[in-house]
Amino acid sequence: MRRWVGTAAALVLLAGLSGCGGDDSSSGDGGGDTTLAVYAAASLTSTFEEMGKEFEKSHDGVRVEFSFAGSSDLVAQIQQGAPADVFASADTANMEKLTADDLIGSGPENFASNTLEIAVPPDNPADIASLQDLTRPGVNLVICAPEVPCGAATQKVADAAGLTFEPVSEEQSVTDVLNKVVTGEADAGLVYVTDVKAATDTVKGITFPESEDAVNIYPIGTTADRKNTDLAQEFMDLVLGDTGQSILEDAGFAKP
Amino acid sequence: MASSSRPVDLPGWVYVPAAAGALFVLLPLAAMVSRVNWGDFYGLVTSESSMAALRLSLRTSAASTLICVLVGVPMAMVLARTAFRGQDLLRSLVLLPLVLPPVVGGIALLYTFGRRGLLGESLEVLGIQIAFSTTAVVMAQTFVALPFLVVSLEGALRTAGQQYEVVAASLGASPTTVLRRVTIPLVLPGLTSGAVLSFARALGEFGATITFAGSLQGVTRTLPLEIYLQRETDADAAVALSLVLVVVAVLVIGFARRGRGSL
User: Within a 10 A sphere around the Cβ of A30, how many other Cβ atoms?
Assistant: First the structure.
């Protein structure tokens, strides 16, 4: 008897283990609930969530499920077979990785652009007024590492202005940079215009003319070989259409 | 404890979930090793940024292990050998970093030692800036690693019991002599494995470091941070460095096993 209980427990456990891998979240075509999986760069979080609501309103029985992360994270996940229907990247380089692997169905099409801005704590303790000020000794400058898109843009801006930054930290993402400024750890950071806008009164933004030298383009595309191709195309149309564009504009994004 | 008698056989079914568990741990490691680009391995691992990260990791982990021993041993002794009101609560709080997501630890450290933190402003007045320095890395690592030392040493102290200490004291040894000549030698295996565990935990520290210390080559970018960053552009480098970290961790565990004790 004891033995039976044990064996049964082992079987239940194994069944549970195999069950873990088996379910596909975006199942069901037509009729019941359909899930559209949208993978988007972290900087698109608030705008895309708003568009998702609009999309659900006009599509009965459709649920838009978002996965927000760094573009390169998302690319790696899609390359490893993650069930994405739509992918929106924060830069063209990451989108190109997917087009090179033939993983993009329709698109990519550019739908927005973003430029850098200096973010400082509201009281601006280091008296920053221009890009040159960031190179002053004693200024705790935090930027993105050159390996990530915002860092590549920072590098471009510095090169164009003929400046060499000596940051106290090179962060992994633009949100990490912003956080260091919000907490007052850093005297200044280079982030996107949209980040400053979203952070409202926790940081102050300082624009600089050299930002024109590093315009970040956001492309979007549907992924290849998925069941929800039509729905994915409709979502992409929403992003590229008037509704999507006005939401993006409100958040501070510029036209591509 | 004498185990000369015939051991009792395990029921056969135990091996099934045990094997599944072992496979669950080993398979991902094997998968990672299979992805290593051996042709470029040496170049990737010995690049300037990789070497800087490895050196920084070993240096900071050693420093934080030392601090863990210096403050963790007395903490474990107080917890194991004394009784006072609120001791259980204190123990739970001290062990909190064990269950806390490291990023939460990083935020807590930031609001304590950051430039605008609880103590940060006074430190700033004294001309000390912890943020973005190697000191911040050591502090983050110590914060997450300390409970490992305290837990294993407290366990060892309780298992060892007090009878030898009582005898030594009755023979006229002072409390410090008892501690030095009896207690510490008795729990040395537990202390060693605790220290090794702390070192391993410090070596793998990521969340608290990136939140509190930042990331700059040679100053605050430890090996886990370097791996996370390399993954953005160069998957081969990230895998190669991951393997280095695994090898170091295996060496550390091997060392701990040789030291035995209460792992």
Answer: 6
Q: Tokens 């359909």 — which residue?
A: A34
Provide the number of structural domains found in chain A: 2
Average pLDDT, chain A: 81
Q: Are residues A161 and A99 in the same domain?
A: no
Tell me which of A14, A20, A185 to substitute to probe the interface with B (most B C-beta atoms closer than 10 Å).
A185
Contact with chain B for residue A80, Cβ under 8 A:
no
> Looking at beta carbons, which residues of chain A come within 8 Å of B25?
none
- In this structure, the answer to whether residues A92 and A68 fall within a common structural domain is yes
Is residue A243 in some structural domain? yes
Q: With 0.90 as the threshold, say if the pTM is over it.
A: no
Environment class of residue B158 by beta-carbon count within 10 Å: exposed (0-12), middle (13-18) or buried (19+)?
Answer: middle
Contact, A252 vs A194, CB < 8 A?
A: yes
Distances, alpha carbon B4 to alpha carbons A125, B1, B7, B8, in Å? 73, 9, 8, 12
In a domain, A9, yes or no: no
Quick check: B123 contacting A, CB < 8 Å? no
- Is A169 in contact with B220 (Cβ distance < 8 A)? yes
pLDDT tens digits, B162-208:
888 899 989 988 989 998 899 999 899 889 889 998 999 999 999 99
CA nearest neighbour of B198 among B255, B239, B247:
B255
Chain B contact present for A90, CB below 8 A: no
Residue B195 or residue A101, greater confidence: B195
- Answer yes or no: are the C-beta atoms of A229 and A83 closer than 8 Å: no
CA neighbor of A93 nearest in space, from A72, A110, A78 = A72
* Cα within 13 Å of Cα(B1), Cβ side: 0
Q: Which of B13, B14, B232 sits opposite A147 (nearest CB)?
A: B232
- Are A195 and A144 part of one and the same domain? yes
Q: Do the Cβ atoms of A3 and B11 come within 8 Å? A: yes
Chain B positions in Cβ-Cβ contact with residue A17 (cut-off 8 Å) = 20
Which CATH architecture describes the domain B40-259?
Orthogonal Bundle (1.10)
**Residue A206 located in a structural domain:** yes
- C-alpha B8, offset from chain centre: 35
CB contact under 8 A, A3 and B233: no
CATH of the domain at A77: 3.40.190.10
- Chain B nearest CA to A16, separation (Å): 12
**Sequence spans of domains, chain B:** 40-259
Structure confidence by residue, pLDDT tens digits, A24-70: 444 434 445 788 888 998 888 888 888 888 888 888 888 888 888 88
Does residue A154 fall inside a structural domain? yes
Residues A159 and A239 in one domain: no
Q: What is the domain extent for residue A156?
A: 116-213
State whether A95 and A134 are in the same domain.
Answer: no
Does the pLDDT value for residue B1 go beyond 60?
no
